[in-house]
Amino acid sequence: MRIKLLMSLLILPVVVMSQNFQGKATYKTHRKVEVKMQDGEAGITSDIQKQLHEKMKKMFQKTFTLNFNKSSSTYIQNEELDPEVKSGGVQVMVFGNGGTGDVLYKNIVEKRYANKTEISGKRFLIKDKLEKPEWEMTSEAKKIGKYTCYKATRTKEEERISQMMTDGEVEEKKEMVTVVTTAWFTPEIPVSNGPSMYWGLPGLILEVHEGKQTIICSEIVLNPTKKIEVDEPKKGKKVSQKEIDAIIKEKTQEMIERFKGRRGGDGDSMSIEIRG
Predict the structure, then answer these.
(1) Which one, of 174, 156, 162, lies nearest residue 211 by Cα?
(2) 103 near 115, Cβ under 8 Å?
(3) Which of 71, 138, 245, 266 would you label with 197, given CA atoms 20 to 30 Å apart?
(4) How many CB atoms lie within 10 A of CB 56?
């Protein structure tokens, strides 16, 4: 009886620590950008292309904070000045890439998420299920900061829709692409979470490579003295992911129509739409 009681006392602090486990991680993102236009198209010169390329690179260089506990997290973009991406009559619009007012909440126990975002000045609250990712873990390891991390990959097929405009006519192209994601996670931080929509590994994800996008953790604070709040967003028009995808497609079409109207007027403006 005494032995059982002693074991219980030894285990109790570990359980309490596990229940109260929390932290925050800072992530930096960047994306490779390619701008390909013919000189003279919509008044575009090689100098303007270079300026646009640099501004677009900065637009995707963002810093986020992941606040997390054992069951849930919030992923929020840190306050910083966004570069105005407009050069020589070319304007870039990004849908679904997040903003300083956006909050992505993930509940990995209940396998659901809530994403507060703003599109064209209107606030939405996307609520849907978290799909369980099918990771393939490997024994390959490396250090990220002081943490030992292991490599995991996943491969999935996605339909990509692109729209091109030639002489005022819009052509939509659909194709299936293979998306390969590489993640590095550390079992030393026992939460099955990570930046953005990445999760589902036996440890916090510290680095992600997917296509032209890279996300890298630059700082981690575990169990700070001040309690970390992980609050689910509540405000915004509630929609599903399928519904918000349809809204984004509609807004993209409206942008194209506006461009066609301007093109008929002065012939020297162009808009580029990017989905994050």
Answers:
(1) 156
(2) yes
(3) 138
(4) 20
The domain locations on the chain are 22-275
- Residue 33: alpha-carbon gap to chain centroid: 16
Q: Cβ distance 79 to 259 under 8 Å?
A: no
Beta-bridge partners for 103: 76, 116
Q: Residue 180: how many CA atoms within 13 Å on its side-chain side?
A: 4
C-alpha 74/C-alpha 196 separation (Å) is 9
Cα–Cα distance for residue pair 65/26, rounded to 1 Å: 5
Please, are residues 251 and 95 in contact by the beta-carbon 8 Å criterion?
yes
- Residue 53 pLDDT class (50, 70, 90 cuts): low
**Which residue in 97, 164, 107 sits closest to 130, CA to CA?**
107
187-240 pLDDT tens trace: 999 999 999 999 999 999 999 999 889 999 999 999 998 899 999 999 999 999
Instruction: Give the pair of three-digit tokens for residue 51.
Output: 């300026």
Q: Please, which residues have CB within 8 angstroms of residue 105's CB and are 6 or more apart in sequence?
A: 72, 73, 74, 75, 113, 114, 115, 116, 230, 231, 232, 233
Within the chain, residue ranges assigned H as helices are 2-19, 46-59, 241-265
Do residues 128 and 110 lie in contact, with contact meaning Cβ atoms separated by under 8 Å? Answer: no
Q: Which of 131, 51, 81, 104 is nearest to 231 (CA)?
A: 104
Max Cα-Cα span within the chain: 89
Q: Which residues pair with 61 in a beta bridge?
A: none
Residue 41 per-residue DSSP state: G
Gap between the Cα atoms of 207 and 204, Å rounded = 9
φ/ψ of 86, rounded to 5, equals -150, 120
For residue 142, the number of C-alpha atoms closer than 13 Å in the C-beta half-sphere is: 8
